[in-house]
Amino acid sequence: MSAVVTEKKLKVVGTRPDRPDGVPKLTGTAQYGADYTLPGMLWGKILRSPHAHARIRKIDASKALKLPGVKGVITAADLPEQKFEYVGAERVAQNFWHMTRNILAREKVLYEGHALAAVAATTPAIAAEALKLIEVDYEILPHVIDVEDAMKPDAPLLFEDMITRGVEPPPTKPSNVSKRVEFKIGDADAAFATADEVVEMSFKTAAVHQGYIEPHACLARADADGQAEVWSSSQGHFVVRTMTVKMLGMKTGDLRCHAAEIGGAFGGKTVVYVEPVAVALSKKTGHPVKIMMSREDVFKATGPTSGASMTIKVGVMRDGTIVAAKGLFKYQAGAFPGSPVMNGCMCGFAPYDIANVNTIGYDVVCNRPKSVAYRAPGSPISAFAVESTLDMAAKKIGMDPIQFRLKNIAKIGTPTVWGPKHSHAGFAETLQALQKHPAYTAPLGKNQGRGVAVGYWFNGGGESSSTVNVNEDGTVVVATGSPDIGGSRASTAQMAAETLGIPYEAVRPIIADTNSVGYTQATGGSRVTFATGITVINACKKVTEEMCKRAAKMWKIEPENVIWEDGSARPAGKRAGEFPPLTFKEIASKRTATGGPVVASASINAEGQAPGFSAQFADVEVDPDTGAVKILRDVAAQDVGRAIHPSYCEGQIIGGVVQGIGCALNEEYIYDKNGHLENAGFLDYRMPVASDLPKIDAIVVEVPNPNHPYGVKGVAEANIVPPMAAIASAIHGATGKRLTDLPMSPPKVLAALDG
Amino acid sequence: MSEMRFEAPKTAEAAVALLAGASGVARVLAGGTDLLIQMRGGRVEPELVVDIKGIAEMSTITSENGGFRLGAAVTAMEMHEHAAFSKAWPGLTEAAMLIGSYQIKGRATVGGNLCNASPAADSVPALIAAGATATIVGPKGRRDAKVEDIATGPGKNSLAKGEIVVSFLLPARPANSGDAYLRFIPRTEMDIAVVGAGINLTLDGKGVCTAARVCVGAVAERALVVQPAADALIGSTVDDAAIAKMGAAVSAACRPIDDKRGTKAFRIKVSGVMARRAAAIALNRARGKN
Description:
Chain A is built from 20 helices and 28 strands.
């Protein structure tokens, strides 16, 4: 790939233009998942389990079907059975046998809120009434919520035939442990014996929800010829298509998916819940069907990320060298296998150059909603444990926490615990930027403390496509397959404008439907500005090559003697200076005469992404009488490679910190003894409100990624990794008490202070 | 599906007639900030909803015998914007203004807050500490009751069928009086009290406390009037020792539960903390310092 463009040449990249999608969002005309309607549309509603664990003996919908206005009812019997197999790379493997059972339960319901039937009716009220008329005969079973309880030999089993994968020889008895993973370099056990100090601590985290403002919603229509269309809010309409056709046994070409505007996702909209149900109801009734989740549905039945139990052991020398590290990670998968425990095992110690590391992870099912990706899935959980332990180790040897981390930081060539060596710079530069922040040495007051932590995330590459259409007035439309969650329309337009040499305002970025642009993976893994961005740049380069050919035609000279410079075709070589330059706009206006429409597409399966790295410190003040923790300041440095739109980079950093503060202080799933979620709403599921938050200083560090034309690294995820440990260490600094159980809510802090 | 009847009468008596005559579940709608959520969540499916916001005596603040008559359907924001009322009763006004977002404050009413009978209602401990009297209209006419006798337990109140609280009488304020309400929430706003404490006190010319009322919320099935806590202040100069004794009396009176919002131990301790801090504010107000 081309070398990184030097900064002085850039005109649009690195500026902060208005977002192209801003006006419809401000004026309320932007169409989100729930905003689509069609003539003759029905309202779909989903029947959900009131029990945490029960066998379904019988579902009788006959009374519901007799209710006037009810046009159809479906259950799992209306979806084809899926083969039991894990598909795809181990880290993100899927099992469609599980997925279909999560969409509509078959043999058992596995958590409160588990969907098991759906109704389509002429009004929402009739659909709601019909749900009450569906009779379900349940055999209530014992349930298990906590991960440690679920691992006990006598725990109730969610799957009576689940044999733990990754253990040799395989266990003979079934359990709730879906998988064991282990990574190892060196010999940690032997190295602990050589360490000057060894610190070992155990931790717990709570299941936390992504908390996007927009509940899942979709509109589906199916025609008599088998063709269907879906409008839904998701992180990837191609993912919606892939999963929906799989769940319904359709041909890929028979389903067209449109990306609605999206009101937040954070990983939680990378899977389908309502789309296959809506298509199935539409097929059954012959009408378009709209399904909208309530907030309660979102909390009870869509993915939180895992809660976990963890034990960390580190051995350090007095000079600060970390010589050995071990981590044991037990993650709740929820009702079906697939927690991000493998990521946790990989990311926890990834920022460091440690010769002897051993991490072991368990993926454990329990009677909770199935966990789904949440911003750097798995990494914030393990980082809370690892970074808290490292803070204690640094304190034990009397070393400044940033200095301690700089002493051990991974560099290009440092091996990772999973094998490959680190191949990008930026970790040390980010820590140094944090260290230089004037507030790092500012004095603290009474009951105040400061804590430092870092965070690692892989970032993603993968498959993306885009198409550039040149209009006759010199404007262009850039179509990508990436739903815009974090400002990708703006960065797309900037990269296109930069590459074409035209004004930002001349570029109209759109998100094309699955039938109108090449395959594109979901917006996730901080991959879009990197991978989709490369396709946009490559398509724009094809356009400039074509524009040079058109100019050659207009000048009647050889195309090889035309170059593209500063947004214009110029005669070059032996023709240099023969004609004045032709601008992009001038060439575009001669489209018809020079060969017809100028269109270019580019696709990629991108590699070469650089990981995300964030280093932060938090200052807190603890109220000694109530245990309330006030965040006074959070300074977050992150290597972004190069900031295409610096405001969006800062926004991503601030957003990740805010979500991390929520996980640190108050967010948690609370269950009663019957396995019912007690806080399925924003009142008692306490995300931070604006007045809870301090000013967050985002430090944008730029160490360009040589594998992207403008140096981009993914920005969206690493920032959520450090806050929990940074805040825990700050509380420790303020009070002398180490909190090891998230969230660090006032009752827990006060109990620690009084204990 | 059940049909719902919606009525918006212009007098309390007409509202009472509707409620008394209802055969099924009937509900009074003031700001709707509790009722609409309950209806949406399927927890109540009323056959009759009586909107009382159009009843003049319920929607106004007027002077009465040197004090104030506060309509039960007056919103938190209207209390806040009523200069004389909010100056006389800053603690009560602040308590009402802690409820929800600005949008909610523009709808939520003290009467609704009381009759909804949540033990965690913010305005109720402040209203009780203020010594307010509720005026109730029912099928048998009008009667007055102490505010502390209205709510009896979570979601339960002592009103008979057809009765509605129409207004509150806030008594005339002696010189050197101050009130305050503080609550503990895990966030800074948009939350429900884990504990709340309302204090109202009066000093004599020498700074000695001659009257005090202490009421705490979210530590029992309803707001608790803690007489020993008030007794700890009365006769003192509200010095640190008296405030500490008052806080200890508050903690001793609490009988909370463990729930999703807090533990028993937390509530017992922090109710005392909130009461002490509220007393300090009330004292400053009584001394003429805000």
